[in-house]
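Handout for the seminar on molecular recognition.
Each group receives one record of this type.
Step one: identify the two inputs.
Step two: read the structure output and locate the region that could contact UAG.
Step three: write two sentences on what you found, then compare them with the reference statements printed after the record.
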Amino acid sequence: MALSLHACILLLKEHHLLKSSAVQSDLDTDMSGIAYDSRKVSGPTLFFCKGGHFRPIYLSMAKDNGATTYVAEKPYVEGNGMNALIVVNITKAMAILAAAFYDFPQDDLFVIAFTGTKGKTTSAYFARAILEQAHPKHVALFSTIDTIVGPNPDQRFKSDLTTPESVDLFRNMRTAVDNGMTHLVMEVSSQAYLRNRVFGLTYDVGFFLNITPDHIGPNEHPNFANYLHNKLQLLVNSRKVVINAETEHFNEVYAAAMTTTYPDSIYLFASAAFKPAGDVPIDFRFDSKTLSTTRSQFQLVPVTDKAAALNVSGQYNLKLIGDFNESNATAAIIGAGLAGVDGAKAMPGIENVTIPGRMEHLTVPGHGVVYVDYAHNYGGMKALLHFLEVEYHDPRMHVVVGSPGDKGVSRRPGFAKVLSEYATTAYLTTDDPGFEDPAKIAAEIDAGIDHTKVAVHTVLDRREAITAAISNSGPDDVVIVAAKGADPYQKVRGVNTPWPTDMVVVKEVAAELAGK
Ligand SMILES: CC(=O)N[C@H]1[C@@H](OP(=O)(O)OP(=O)(O)OC[C@H]2O[C@@H](n3ccc(=O)[nH]c3=O)[C@H](O)[C@@H]2O)O[C@H](CO)[C@@H](O)[C@@H]1O[C@H](C)C(=O)N[C@@H](C)C(=O)N[C@H](CCC(=O)O)C(=O)O
Ligand SMILES: Nc1ncnc2c1ncn2[C@@H]1O[C@H](COP(=O)(O)OP(=O)(O)OP(=O)(O)O)[C@@H](O)[C@H]1O
C-alpha cells in the first residue's frame, strides 16, 4: 500500500480540509506507511498529530523513525524538514486519507452496520452467523468483543474499541478483503461519529436499534442531544436503512433516515403487539411464540410487499434467551435478507448463536440460577431484570454490579433506579474504576437506591461480592452478575489488570459451595 503526497493534497482539497501545505520533497513521493502513533512508524510514513494527549515529542519520534509527512491542525517546529499538511480537522483528514491509503476496501465489501445503545454486539453476532451460512468463511466482523479479518484462527483477535480509529478500521477492512472476505458486519458507536472514525464511510445497510441515555459525561458526549445527533449519522450514511420502530425518539430517527433515503429503502420492524403512534408502515412484525429460560421461538411476519420480497419470513429458534434478543435477531435477519440471503438459509445460522458474557447462566444446587450478563446501563439492566422477573415468576433477585470510572456517570443513578425497581439485594462492587475511587462510585449508586425496597451491601472486592451473593442466595432465587460480561480485565489507573471473567469466578464459587 502507498499514497503519494500529491494524492494527499488533492484529497484534502476535495474535502475542503486543507488549510495550508509546506512541501519539502517531490510531490510524487510515495508514503508506504500511515500512522497516528509514533511507536508504529517505520520507513516513509504519513503521520497524524491527533488526540487529547498528543505531545510534539511524538512527532520528533515519528520523524526519527522515518516519517516524511505530517498532518496536523497547526504547524510544529518538531516537523521542520518534513512535508506539512495543515488541516481544518485532523480526525476527518485521517479518515479520508486512511481510506485512500488502503485503496477504499469498503468498495469490495457488503457492509452491514449496527448502531444503538443496546444490542449492537448481539445483532452483529446474529447477522454474521446467518451470513456465514450463506457465504462460509467470507464474513468479517468488527465488534466490541472480537475483530475477524479472515477465515483462520490467527485472523481473529480481541478488539480495543467498539469502532476502531479510522486508520485501524480501513487497515482491517483491507486485510479482510485481501483474505477473501466479501461481507463485513460492524458495530458503529456514537463515539465513532463524534471522533470521525467512520467519516466518509457509506454502509450498504445501516441499523438503528434503540437509544436511551448513556455515554454522557466528560470523556464522552456532553449531553443527550449530542449523543442522539451522533447516532443518527449512521442513517444518513447508509444506502438502505432498518429501524426498530419501538425505539425511543422514533420520529427524529425516522426523519433523519428520510433526509437521504427514499422510503422504499427504509424498513421498519416491531413486535406483534406494538402500536405505532403515527401512520408509518411497519414492514416486519416479530411474534414471540415460546419465551423461556432455555430457548426462544418467534415468528417473523412480513407486513408490506417490500418486506415479503426479502423472503425471510418464518419461524426462528434462538438459544440466546431474552425477549430483547428476539428484537436483535429480527434486525439481523432483515439485514441478511437485504444482503440477498434467504430465510431457509438463515434459520440454522441464528439458532445456535451464543455470545461471551451475554445471558450466560449456571444453576448452583441450593442457590438458584446465576446469570452473567453485560447489561451495563439502566435500559439494558431493566430489559434483563424484567425478563427474569417474568420468567422466574417474581423471584428474589440478588444483583452484583459496579459502574465504571471516568465515563458514563449517568449509569450510576440509572443502576440505583433499576435496582430499586427490581432487586431484593444489591452487592455494589468494582467495575473498571479507572482513575476514580471504586468506593466513591459505589456510594454514588447507593445514594440513589430506595433502601426500603433493597438490601444494599458494598463489597468492593468483586470476587468476594460474587461469593457473597451466591452463598446467600436461596434455591429459588436468581443471582445476576452484571455489567462486565466476559471482560478478562479490570481497568485500574490506566492498567488492564487481569480478571478471570465473571463466569469463571461464578463456576469457582459454585465448585467451592458443592465441596462444602
Ligand atoms: C475519548 C476517546 O475516544 N479517546 C480515544 C482517542 O484518544 P486520543 O485521540 O485523545 O488519543 P490519546 O490516546 O490521548 O493519545 C494521543 C495521541 O498520541 C499518540 N501517541 C501516544 C504515545 C506515544 O508514544 N506516541 C504517540 O504518537 C497516540 O497514538 C494518539 O494518537 O484515541 C485513542 C487511540 O488513538 C483511543 O484509545 C481513545 O479511546 C479511549 C481509550 C476510550 O476509551 N474511548 C471510548 C470512550 C470509546 O471510544 N468507546 C466507544 C464505545 C462507546 C459505546 O459503546 O458507544 C468505542 O467505539 O469503543
Ligand atoms: N435490544 C435490546 N434492548 C435492551 N437491552 C438489550 C438489548 N440487547 C441487549 N440488551 C442488553 O444489553 C447488554 C449488552 O448487549 P450488547 O453487547 O449486544 O449491546 P451493545 O450495544 O453492543 O453494548 P455496548 O455498546 O455497550 O458494548 C446485553 O447483555 C443485554 O443485557
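Reference statements: The chain has a mean pLDDT of 95. The CA atoms of residues 166 and 494 lie 23 Å apart.
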